[in-house]
Amino acid sequence: MRMTTIRKGRIGELEVTQDLLKKGWNVYSPVVDDHGIDLVAEKGNITHHIQVKTKRPSKGKTSIEVVIRIPSKADYLAVPLAMHKCVCYIPVDVSVESFKNKKSIALAFKKSKNGQVVDRNWYEDYLELPE
After folding, report:
1. Phi and psi based region of residue 24 (left: phi greater than 0; alpha: psi -120 to 50; beta: remaining)
2. What is the pLDDT of residues 26-64, one digit of tens each?
3. SS3 of 42, please?
């Protein structure tokens, strides 16, 4: 069976759900996904609306580019990184320096081959969903 983009996306949603459940969050899936919200995470009095972006890096790449849907009703983009067995939670806030005048963010997981440091956001900086 061919791995379609729908299957890949659903697997990513399940990876994010599992990560959040392990971290003590309650997780809910909307019946209809027509507003860019894939999951709702709740813990105590905190609720986050999450859009999941399932990306797999190309061979030899040192980062992945994640496209942001702006305007977005999501508070966070969740990007499962299978190779590191983790999920990155990126705040969707156009006031954040990483998003100014952009519609994407680069998540780096290795040093770049040319030593570039501009626009490199290390995946380790996004491993927790704020409580």
Report:
1. left
2. 999 998 877 789 999 999 999 999 999 988 767 777 778
3. strand
In angstroms, the CA 103 to CA 19 distance is 26
Number of H helices, E strands in the chain: 1, 8
Contact between 55 and 8 (Cβ < 8 Å): no
Distance CA 48, CA 74 (A): 8
* Residue 105 three-state SS: strand
- For tokens 């952009």, what's the residue? 102
Rounded CA-CA distance 16/107 in Å is 17
CA 115/CA 118 separation, integer angstroms? 9
Task: State in Å, rounded, how far the first CA of the chain is from the last one.
Answer: 40
pTM for the full predicted model: 0.84
- How far apart, in whole angstroms, are the C-alpha atoms of residue 83 and residue 60? 13
